[in-house]
Every structure is written in structure tokens, then in C-alpha cells.
Design a protein that fits this description.
By secondary structure, the protein is α+β, with helices and mostly antiparallel strands. It contains 8 helices and 4 strands. A 4-stranded mixed beta sheet has the order 2-1-3-4, covered by helices on one side. Helix 1 links the parallel strand 1 and strand 2. The longest helix has 30 residues. The structure holds glutathione. Glutathione binds next to helix 1 and helix 3.
Length: 206
């Protein structure tokens, strides 16, 4: 059975859990990371020397990096679901995944550490403002792009929606001033109609 290491409060762990739920992949999960067992313990560092969750152990295979794990799971167990075989469609899914992890994730980092995690050292109001306004700006770009997509970003429900759904939920939950983005609101409502979406984009999580 697949072994997932990481706390559910981590957005990156929830990507993996959501994929498992959509594909019916049997798994066990262990609480590692902030507030639980430290990722600096030797047992964890052996699996991921970068000391980050999630880590997935699938038999002899050790996997790190949430988006890479999602692609692996869909390719190995998806039977065509979540991650299309067609190179063009696949590239569209990957573009959203890359945008989330490289751009969106970078924009919210300071604001989330300061306002949600309340981490010491993240207490510069100008930096919070810069991060918040960059984040809102990217979400407005996303809102405009949603005009050209259907209910899901790439036709069928895919990894792109899992990754962007969780990112959207984080933005909606953060204690920041938000502009009204009606397409983003509608998109998130659609994802919450899926059972895994209701669970992982629910009030318990940011
Ligand atoms: N690029 C990595 C980022 C992983 C990451 O930043 N994980 C955070 C939680 S979301 C973490 O391990 N934090 C340390 C901790 O919780 O102890 C991925 O996508 O998997």
C-alpha cells in the first residue's frame, strides 16, 4: 500500500491525497512536518534530504515534490484519468501545474507565513502588502483566463484542477483584502461539488 508522509494541513500533501481519492488509490498517511514529527529527523531525511513534505513511498520507490508525485500517480494508476496522454493536452495541464508552483506559490509565500502561519521573522508590513498585492494580481489574471475555459481548466477534470483548486481555496481562506473575482468563485464552487473537493477545499484547511 502507498505510504504518504505529511500533515494534511499542507497544501502540497492535500494535492497527493486528492489524487489518491479521485483514483481510488489505497494509502496510509503519517503526520510529519510542522506541529508533528520533524522532517529533520534522520528517518525522514533518508527519504527526502530537502526535509520537505510530502514524501510518498510506493514499494521500493521514494517520491518527493508534490507535482511530480501527482504526475507519477496519475501516470501509473490513472488509466488515462487526470493526466491526458495526448502531448498537447498534457502540456496544457502541466502549464497550470507549473504556474501554480512557480508563480502563484511564490506570490503568496510571505503573506501566508505572516498572516496564516504567523511565523516569527515574517513581520514586515511592506512585504505583506507586496506579497498580497502580487497574489491578488495573479488571481485576477487567473479569473480572466477562466473566461476561456469550461467548468474545468483543460476540458476534463485533471491534475490542473486539483492543483489550481487548492491554490484558489488558499486565496479564498487567507485573511487578506480580496477583490471580487466572480469566475474564480464559480470555479471553486464547481470543484467543491466533487466529494474530494468538498473535503480538501473545506473550512478546515487554508
Ligand atoms: N516544492 C515542494 C514544496 C514542499 C513544501 O514546501 N512543503 C512544506 C509544507 S507545504 C514543508 O515541508 N514544510 C516543512 C514542515 O512542515 O515541517 C513540493 O511541492 O512538494
Amino acid at each position: 500500500m502507498l505510504r504518504i508522509l505529511g500533515r494534511t494541513s499542507s497544501i502540497n500533501v492535500r494535492k497527493v491525497l486528492w489524487v489518491c481519492e479521485e483514483l481510488g488509490i489505497a494509502h496510509s498517511r503519517e503526520d510529519w512536518g510542522s506541529g508533528f514529527r520533524s522532517t529533520r529527523e534522520a528517518e525522514f531525511l533518508k527519504l527526502n534530504p530537502r526535509a520537505l513534505i510530502p514524501v510518498v513511498v510506493d514499494g521500493e520507490t521514494i517520491l518527493t515534490e508534490s507535482n511530480a508525485i501527482c504526475r507519477y500517480l496519475a501516470t501509473r494508476y490513472g488509466n488515462g484519468a487526470l493526466f491526458p496522454d495526448d502531448p498537447v493536452k498534457r502540456a496544457e495541464v502541466e502549464a497550470w501545474m507549473d504556474w501554480m508552483i512557480a508563480d502563484l506559490n511564490g506570490s503568496w509565500r510571505y503573506a501566508v507565513q505572516a498572516l496564516v502561519r504567523k511565523r516569527p521573522g515574517f513581520d514586515n508590513p511592506a512585504e505583506v502588502q507586496r506579497s498580497t498585492s502580487e497574489w491578488n494580481g495573479l488571481m485576477a489574471v487567473f479569473d480572466a483566463q477562466l473566461e476561456t475555459t469550461g467548468e474545468y481548466l483543460c476540458g476534463e477534470f485533471s491534475l490542473a484542477d486539483i492543483v489550481m483548486g487548492l491554490a484558489t481555496h488558499r486565496w479564498q481562506q487567507a485573511p487578506i483584502a480580496r477583490v471580487n473575482l466572480p469566475r474564480v468563485t464559480r470555479y471553486a464552487e464547481g470543484l467543491r461539488r466533487r466529494s474530494a473537493g468538498a473535503r480538501f477545499m473545506g473550512p478546515d484547511f487554508d
